[in-house]
């Protein structure tokens, strides 16, 4: 009984922590959707690009004799620069020309951006698995006196959780307390109205893509340490989708809560339901959870309910 | 930037190769290459593709081709996706003066899809160390050549090695062996052989699937932490392998009790996990990394002249496997030429070449592959040609061979091959060839 309870707790905790890591990716989606109404399918590819720029420059600088701490700072700055350039190019050549177009058109354009970023990133920085060791990747074994073998808690997941917490607070302050943050919200509400009061749409879109790029860079540091920086990171975008459906596309706290539900739900399902139906179910089980939420609350748990009067 | 240069170089090579047939150079043998240089499996796909390309280029540079027939080749990017693989096959099968000589898809999923197509197009499939295990039965699968070993060979050898480590087959009774596998046709292939072994040797077998691409395995390894199997077999590909090793380390499962298949035993599988990989074992598709006689020629004719597409992966495990794959394929073409003359071969002629290929130890030495490959001989009945494998261990810096050759137990595998091949023949309404009547 104790062993079974210990196992349940272990799966639950690891699921919750994994969920926070999904939230890191989902936050990038929320930011862009909140500020521009664009569902940015390229967020997963942006995590890949940020991660590759970081790890490849870090490896280069360390190989050329720079101290590790200095190399990390320089590599982070380089990766941030790459994300800024990406934000500029996306705004200048993709979104800028599509101002006032239908949301579906903008969404389709981000699918195109996804493939361009994926291909360009691999061509520039390589297609291998590049190890990134910014955080400890071993585990704690807690409550060994209560449960045989203890409860396993992965250190990298805990780091991810702490980083996500800091990020959420930072973004909340940015949106609520800064002039740019308020301008972002104004643009999200109505492009034309925002323009009429002097807010530059092009500048705002650049800023929001830049912030989403920096969030992608943060996500890349954690996921890169966990998996190595490699192409599969783009699949995280598919993990973020059910998180967004559950948490709502416009809510930063929703992205966190959605992540926790998806992470815990899929891991528990894999551990307890999987053995009865052949296993390997966690990838699609997250979407089952999302569909259940969609049926009960289409705007997500924390999303804004939009009523359009005709 | 170096990668960019490499990519542009590869494109240039491919463009040069593909424009050849357009100017009607009829004395050319067209060989297609289904590759994945991008996507989640690229870290493993690139070194193999480089080995394949370098060996073909070596034959052109050193020997002027195969018996004077120049090789032209074209790469097509599949991304390890079955639909793209079939698309590439359709695009390339008719190229060159005689069409494609043979295909090597480096994907069990693509192999499954093409197995139904190649009899109609009369093009052989060379699936070295992967694909349908029952395709060893040449009477039912005349167009498939699962050279060197199948997943059933691998599964059997892995159990033999475990038996040796625990002190004999009788000690396997009451042991627990789990299989962590890529949830795809590839990952599922060894299950039949492992179940047969479990029944025979009395161990408890549990199969644990991991969904593509394999970056999320926490639940699976937490379950292993609870079950505490005596050994874990790993049937992963690409990033799944290094993730498995990292998760094994995270849950404290000893790495020297994890044995990967030969597609989980290359440098890209262990280096991303750093020190956590030390002790991990994997099967060898006979060969390992390192330089042999053929590498001296590669260095002389390609590397020193900047004509090799390989860089860091030169002489690594998967690069060497690409070399062997191309060597077996081109030797089949050469064998076909003995019968049909020194001219470009059709797929049908190359199939004859495969079926009559006899790579003796002397010939392997002459080709520069001594130490990489044991003698290999196909026949009408046997499209595998060899059934031995070894085990290697990663010491934290390099792969070390830790076993002698094991020969797969045909008392177990041969009936399995017959049973599954017969089932396939019934499903597809195939009449098996009578090999006693084949010349």
Considering the chains and any ligands shown, give keywords for the structure.
heterodimer, A: 310 residues, mainly alpha, ABC transporter involved in vitamin B12 uptake, BtuC, two-stranded antiparallel ribbon, 11 helices, 2 strands, B: 439 residues, alpha/beta, Rossmann fold, 2 domains, eight-stranded mixed beta sheet
The CATH topology annotation of the largest domain in chain B reads as: Rossmann fold
Instruction: Give a count of the beta strands of chain B, DSSP E runs of length 2 or more.
Output: 14
Largest sheet features of chain B: 8 strands, mixed
Gross morphology of chain A: globular
Biggest interface reads:
A-B, 45 and 43 residues
Shape of chain B: globular
| Content of β-strand of chain B | 5-15%
Number of domains of chain A: 1
| End-to-end separation of chain A | 59 Å
Mean pLDDT across residues of chain A: 88
Sequence of secondary-structure elements of chain B? HEHEHHHEEHEHHEHEHEHEHHHEHEEEEH
CATH homologous superfamily title of the largest domain in chain B: Response regulator
- DSSP helix fraction of chain B: 40-55%
* Architecture (CATH level 2) name of the largest domain in chain B: 3-Layer(aba) Sandwich
Whole-number total of structural domains of chain B: 2
Radius of gyration of chain A equals 20 Å
Taken as a percent bin, the fraction of beta residues of chain A is under 5%
Secondary-structure-derived class of chain B: alpha/beta
Name the quaternary structure. Answer: heterodimer
Secondary-structure element order of chain A, N to C: HHHHEEHHHHHHH
């Amino acid at each position: 009984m104790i062993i079974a309870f210990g196992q349940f707790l272990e799966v639950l905790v690891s699921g919750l922590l994994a969920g926070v890591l999904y939230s890191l990716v989902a936050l990038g989606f929320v930011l862009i959707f909140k500020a521009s109404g664009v569902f940015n399918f390229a967020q997963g590819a942006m995590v890949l690009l940020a991660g590759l720029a970081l790890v490849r420059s870090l490896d280069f600088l360390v190989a050329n004799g720079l101290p590790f701490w200095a190399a990390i700072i320089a590599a982070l700055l380089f990766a941030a620069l790459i994300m800024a350039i990406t934000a500029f190019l996306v705004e200048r050549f993709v979104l800028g020309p599509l101002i006032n177009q239908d949301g579906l058109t903008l969404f389709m354009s981000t699918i195109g951006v996804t493939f361009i970023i994926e291909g360009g990133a691999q061509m520039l920085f390589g297609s291998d698995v590049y190890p990134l060791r910014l955080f400890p990747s071993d585990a704690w074994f807690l409550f060994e006196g209560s449960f045989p073998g203890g409860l396993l808690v992965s250190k990298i997941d805990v780091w991810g959780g702490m980083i996500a917490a800091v990020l959420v607070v930072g973004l909340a302050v940015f949106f609520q307390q800064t002039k740019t943050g308020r301008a972002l919200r104004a643009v999200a509400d109505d492009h034309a109205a925002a323009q009429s009061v002097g807010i530059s749409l092009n500048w705002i879109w650049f800023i929001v893509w830049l912030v989403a790029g920096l969030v992608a860079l943060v996500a890349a540091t954690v996921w890169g340490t966990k998996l190595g920086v490699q192409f599969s990171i783009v699949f995280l975008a598919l993990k973020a989708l059910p998180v967004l459906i559950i948490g709502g596309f416009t809510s930063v706290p929703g992205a966190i809560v959605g992540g926790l539900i998806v992470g815990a739900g899929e891991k528990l399902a894999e551990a307890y339901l999987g053995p009865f139906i052949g296993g390997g179910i966690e990838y699609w089980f997250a979407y089952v959870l999302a569909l259940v939420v969609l049926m009960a609350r289409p705007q997500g748990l924390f999303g804004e309910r939009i009523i359009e009067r005709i | 930037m170096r990668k960019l240069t490499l990519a542009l170089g590869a494109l240039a090579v491919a463009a040069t190769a593909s424009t050849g047939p357009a100017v009607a150079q009829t004395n050319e043998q067209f060989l297609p290459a289904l590759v994945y240089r991008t996507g989640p499996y690229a870290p493993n796909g690139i070194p193999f593709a480089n080995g394949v390309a370098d060996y073909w280029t070596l034959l052109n540079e050193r020997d002027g081709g195969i018996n004077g027939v120049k090789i032209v080749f074209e790469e097509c990017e599949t991304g390890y996706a079955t639909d793209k693989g079939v698309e590439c096959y359709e695009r390339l099968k008719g190229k060159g003066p005689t069409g494609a000589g043979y295909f090597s898809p480096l994907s069990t999923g693509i192999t499954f899809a093409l197995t139904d197509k190649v009899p109609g197009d009369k093009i052989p499939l060379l699936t070295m160390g992967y694909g349908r295990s029952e395709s060893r039965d040449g009477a039912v699968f005349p167009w498939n050549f699962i050279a060197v070993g199948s997943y059933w060979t691998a599964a059997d050898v892995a159990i033999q090695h475990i038996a040796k480590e625990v002190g004999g087959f009788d000690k396997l009774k009451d042991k627990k062996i789990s299989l962590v596998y890529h949830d795809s046709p590839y990952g599922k292939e060894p299950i039949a052989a492992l179940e047969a072994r479990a029944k025979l040797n009395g161990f408890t077998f549990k199969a644990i699937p991991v969904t593509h691409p394999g970056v999320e395995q926490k639940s699976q390894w937490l379950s292993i932490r609870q079950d505490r199997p005596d050994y874990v077999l790993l049937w992963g590909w690409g990033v799944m392998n290094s993730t498995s090793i990292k998760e094994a380390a995270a849950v404290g499962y000893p790495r020297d009790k994890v044995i990967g298949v030969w597609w989980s035993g290359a440098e890209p599988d262990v280096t991303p996990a750093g020190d956590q990989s030390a002790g991990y074992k994997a099967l060898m598709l006979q060969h390992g990394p390192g330089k042999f006689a053929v590498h001296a020629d590669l260095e002389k004719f390609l590397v020193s002249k900047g004509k090799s597409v390989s860089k860091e992966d030169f002489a690594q495990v998967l690069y060497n496997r690409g070399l062997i794959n191309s060597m077996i394929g081109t030797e089949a073409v050469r064998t076909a030429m003995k019968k049909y003359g020194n001219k470009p071969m059709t797929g049908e002629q190359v199939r004859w070449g495969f079926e009559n290929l006899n790579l003796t130890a002397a010939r392997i030495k002459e080709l520069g592959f001594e130490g990489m490959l044991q003698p290999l001989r196909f026949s009408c009945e046997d499209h595998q040609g060899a059934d031995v494998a070894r085990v290697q261990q990663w010491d934290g810096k390099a792969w070390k061979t830790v076993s002698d050759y094991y020969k797969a137990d045909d008392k177990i595998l041969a009936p399995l091959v017959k049973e599954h091949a017969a089932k396939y023949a019934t499903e597809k309404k195939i009449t098996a060839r009578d090999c006693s009547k084949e010349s």
